[in-house]
Amino acid sequence: MESWRAPEVPSLPVPGPEVRLHDTRTREVVPTRPEGPARLYVCGITPYDATHLGHAATYLAFDLLNRAWRNAGHEVHYVQNVTDVDDPLLERAEATGVDWRELAEQQTELFREDMVALRVLPPENYIGAVEAIPLVVDLVQRMEKAGAVYRLEDDLYHAVDADPAFGEVSGWSREEMLEVYPERGGDPDRAGKRDPLDAVVWRGRREGEPSWDSPLGPGRPGWHVECAAIALEHLGMDFDVQGGGSDLVFPHHEMSAGEGQLAHPGSRFAKVYTHAGMVGYDGEKMSKSRGNLVFVSRLREAGTDPMAIRLALLRHHYRDDWEWTDAELDDAVATLTRWRSAFSAPAGAPAGPVTEEVLGALADDLDAPRALAAIDAWAAASAASADSADSSDALDPAAPALVADLADAALGLRV
After folding, report:
1. So what's the pLDDT on residue 390?
2. Helix 368-387 crosses helix 326-343 at what angle (to 10 degrees)?
3. Which residues pair with 242 in a beta bridge?
4. N- to C-terminal Cα distance for the chain?
5. Coil, helix or strand for 270?
6. Whole-number Å distance between alpha carbons of 374 and 369
7. Cα 165 vs. chain centroid, distance in angstroms?
8. Distance of CA 411 to the CA centre of its chain
């Protein structure tokens, strides 16, 4: 599957610090220590509707990580999936009368367009579930050899009790898991399962649903094993960061990690698990099931500057839950106007201090609000100095271009 066009990113004159991230598993901010290229896996979309601001906030968070690693001097190997066959997609296709393959391609292309507009760095490997079926089959067979898979009618299940580390990623109690499992793709009440938390890794063929022939029998992949198989193929075990929204902590990331580890005993799936908060609207988490969505594409169609969308989202720390309002955009547009004035001025306040602050903030658990505040303060100081005859000699003619490059390279804001 094709990724999207990469934006041009300016080089900075100084390197950034090594990156520290919040790890969901340990509940601590920990250093990332890539050995060779930094390896990042971020769970992608199920393409049955357009990109809403909750999606965009998550992908911007890991775009900041990608940029912070690159600014610290690391190469980055970034992998993302597309769940281009799954129940929600099939249900939407049936409801709209559109072939599921056509719907998946339409929405995936719209997602690509949104990512280009928001200047998100593309993954090196952008892999659909359908093209990953051979990888899934291989992983399930490895799990079978480890005694971690059983058959229930035509379906194959991941037996969670085969994994002594099950529960370590989320840190959740069994009661907490069972409470959310039905809402997040689980089937705890299915008769015949050994454990209500067991997850399907291969869904046997159903009438009217797509399926593929395989050594496992005709069928299609489960959700969690899809991501595990793609990550292992392109990044290997013990990769640096597994990322996604906080609604993926359980069951998705817990199950994916377990499936990888069951197939490769003695190895960790990922070193760090990092999760972005949820964006709300009208008092609820933004989600397709609630219908309270603000779409990136519709904002763009209405003439909204994509950089204002990006800036509005970056005003919030990536781990925070928060609620979108129209005022978010108004504030972002006003900020961009101030920045454009400062970046086009003949001189500005020295760039060294703001560069150090911005790169330091982003290396400290991707603190974009602190980085944005530093550029705001630089713009204000530049304007104040330009208006003062006594301090104009402190202005640097090279600073506006340097800080504009900083905003682009570190924050993805081409102003």
Report:
1. 57
2. 50
3. 41, 273
4. 31
5. strand
6. 9
7. 24
8. 15
Residue 260 identity: G
User: Average pLDDT of 311-334?
Assistant: 96
- Which two three-digit tokens encode residue 303? 């003439």
- SS3 (DSSP) at 301: helix
Q: Which H or E element spans position 409? A: helix 399-411
pTM equals: 0.96
Tell me: the pLDDT tens digits for 201-255?
A: 999 999 999 999 999 999 999 999 999 999 999 999 999 999 999 999 999 999 9
Q: Which residue type is seen at 178?
A: L
Distances in whole angstroms, Cα of residue 182 to Cα of each of 33, 54, 87, 396: 36, 22, 14, 59
Asked if the peptide bond before residue 251 counts as cis, ω within 30 degrees of 0, the response is: yes
Distance CA 167, CA 318 (A): 24
* Secondary structure class of 348 (helix, strand, coil): strand
d(CA 12, CA 24): 31
In angstroms, rounded to a whole number, what is the distance separating the alpha carbons of residues 58 and 246? 9
Least Cα distance to 80 among 138, 127, 147 occurs for: 127
DSSP-assigned letters across all residues of 155-181: EEEE-GGG-TTTTTTT---HHHHHHHG
Instruction: Estimate to the nearest angstrom the gap between the alpha carbon of 307 and the chain centroid.
Output: 18
